[in-house]
Design a protein that fits this description.
It contains 19 helices and ten strands. It is α+β, with helices and mostly antiparallel strands and 581 residues long. Strand 9 and strand 10 form a beta hairpin.
Length: 581
């Protein structure tokens, strides 16, 4: 996270890492050369900068450029990698050729533990730092939250991981993995404690720091994951090395875990601090603006940047971002098809009004604000507005137009999070990249309510709120296309698809497909699942759409669990590898 007070971030950059292993790089102090433990924690500004440094990697696995180099969406049914080179992380993940030595997630282990060590150092020193008692308490809450955030990233990725004590700076790590449930209990306890130390909101100068709401919202996500099938008695027990009682899952299926998830979501809602950003002066406009409005009540925890055009540079096609030479992510045809029509009905529903000869006409507003398709009008680098064309061999942006692969491979580009008045080289906007937002909490509650009691007005009311804000038409009965006569299983599928649409390209789909055990159907298969693209030919007003196979993706049961980095297994002799690896 970057703060509204940008100078804090700039100052934090000179305070580098506490190593995961050694003491000699306590601050990696190159500038200024006199930084050490004593000089940092005896100075209030340097103390705060040390804390600020821990915020700078909270976006791991969510933003387009992270330790993988690509978004996790490219490893799901949401997204396609931008080019097909064999060394591209998304490519060797999707073809199943990675190993514990080459897994795209390997960078997470050291980065997260480095930040956990930083948080530990801060908490071990805070009692003696030259800050007021009130600031000591608040920053202790921030450090606890941040430490838990990095444990969450590790736990979500690997299962049970070592919980690191407040080690001396010279100590080496060679700890065994704690059990899955140990880590859940630890994170929940830490978040409850942090919530008592943190305010509901900060003064404007500190906007973006962890709050009580962020603690409770992260707890909501953790308990939703812990209740989900993969971890709630549904582990892949056929894999070699599987031990459900320890690292990987909770061995027993306990329905009460859904109750805990429900109550955690309600705790956030009952703060009465957050709400959906609603603006339907144009249908769904609030959905668009929530990502471009730095301060708004939907955002609970965010990674924020100074105003600019960084995401436009990464996502827009070459006609709008010529110097970028690559859009980092292309939506799959499956992602395009997931969005319903403006009446809320799926495009497969005969009553929806979908016309395959005009596939982009009459779709719900979130489609417009998430998918950049053939004919989308956007600001160009001359300062005027013109259509972007993605048809086969269209200059610059069309499928097949770049032999290096730096043009859409699916017939579309990502539009979500981007400002239509900004290009990759001109203009500037506020970017508000959500790590947790209120819409997620509502969907957490809807999912838990359905798992506990099946279809109910409690579930439908939440879904209506989500779809009303999206600008979908109420339709007959005012149900916004929600299948109110569905059974529990069908409603579960509907909720997961709604989550897929609402949270698209925000870093959720990879983990949702795994925790719910649908990845073997959505993201690949042992024999290779075909993924499709739309090849567009013809001319304006007479376009032809042809579905073509783009690639096959592979998914094996062991891919439900990400392997620990082989380097850690080799050097940390008390660690046990995940099953199947």
């Amino acid at each position: 996270m970057l703060f509204r007070k940008y100078s804090l971030f700039a100052a934090a950059l000179i305070v580098a890492a506490v190593g995961c292993k050694k003491s000699s790089d306590f601050l990696d102090a190159k500038v200024p050369s006199d930084l050490n433990e004593e000089t940092v924690f005896s100075d209030s500004a340097r103390t705060m900068n040390f804390l600020n440094r821990i915020y700078t990697q909270v976006q791991h696995s969510s933003l387009p450029v992270n330790y993988m180099g690509v978004p996790t969406d490219v490893c799901t049914d949401n997204g396609e990698v931008s080019y097909s080179g064999a060394t591209q992380p998304g490519v060797y993940y999707n073809n199943g050729s990675f190993t514990p030595a080459s897994c795209p997630f390997n960078g997470m282990w050291n980065d997260c533990y480095a930040n956990i060590r930083r948080a530990n150092r801060y908490l071990s020193k805070v009692s003696g730092v030259p800050l007021s008692d009130a600031l000591k308490n608040r920053t202790s809450g921030e450090a606890k939250f941040l430490r838990t955030w990095y444990y969450f990233l590790l736990w979500r990725t690997y299962g049970g991981v070592p919980i690191v004590p407040l080690l001396a700076i010279t100590d080496e790590l060679n700890l065994p993995r704690n059990s899955y449930q140990d880590v859940v209990n630890y994170m929940v306890k830490e978040l409850d404690e942090a919530a008592t130390l943190l305010p509901l909101e900060h003064e404007p100068a500190d906007y973006g720091r962890a709050t009580k709401g962020a603690c409770l919202a992260l707890k909501s996500r953790i308990l939703l994951y812990a209740a989900s099938p993969l971890y709630n008695g549904g582990g892949i027990s056929s894999l070699s090395g599987f031990d459900a009682a320890k690292q990987f899952v909770q061995a027993d299926a306990d329905p009460n875990r859904w109750v805990l998830a429900k109550n955690a979501a309600l705790a956030v809602i009952n703060l009465n601090r957050y709400n959906l950003y609603v603006d339907n002066t144009q249908p769904g406009y609030g959905f668009y603006k929530t990502f471009l409005t730095r301060v708004n009540n939907e955002m609970i925890f965010c990674f924020m940047n100074t105003p600019g055009r960084s995401l436009e540079f990464l996502y827009l096609p070459k006609s709008r971002a010529p110097q970028s030479n690559v859009a980092y992510l292309y939506p799959t045809q499956s992602m395009v098809d997931a969005f319903p029509m403006a009446n809320g009905l799926a495009i497969t529903d005969p009553a929806s009004g979908y016309d395959p000869a005009n596939p982009y006409v009459g779709r719900e507003p979130r489609f417009k604000y998430s998918i950049l398709h053939n004919g989308t009008v956007w600001r160009n680098n001359s300062g005027t507005y013109s259509a972007i064309y993605t048809y086969f061999m269209a200059p610059n942006d069309g499928m097949g137009s770049d032999p290096s692969g730096y043009a859409t491979r699916t017939g579309a580009y990502v539009r979500k999070l981007l400002d239509e008045n900004v290009t990759g080289s001109q203009g500037s906007t506020e970017h508000n990249y959500p790590l947790i937002r209120y819409a997620e909490i509502l969907l957490n509650l809807a999912e838990a309510e359905n798992e506990i009691g099946g279809p109910s007005e409690a579930v439908f009311s939440i879904l209506r709120d989500i779809r009303r804000r999206a600008g979908i038409q109420p339709g007959t009965g005012g149900n916004f296309g929600i299948p109110v006569t569905a059974n529990k299983d069908a409603l579960r599928d509907f909720i997961l698809n709604e989550r897929r649409i609402e949270l698209a390209f925000e870093g959720h789909r990879f983990w949702d497909n795994r925790r719910t055990k649908i990845a073997e159907f959505t993201d690949g298969s042992p024999e290779g699942k075909p993924f499709y693209a739309t090849k567009i030919t013809g001319t304006e007003g007479n376009w032809k759409y042809e579905l073509i196979e783009q690639e096959k993706r592979f998914f094996r049961p062991e891919m439900y669990y990400v392997p620990l980095p082989q380097t850690q297994i080799n050097t940390e002799t008390n660690l046990v590898q995940n099953p199947g690896w």
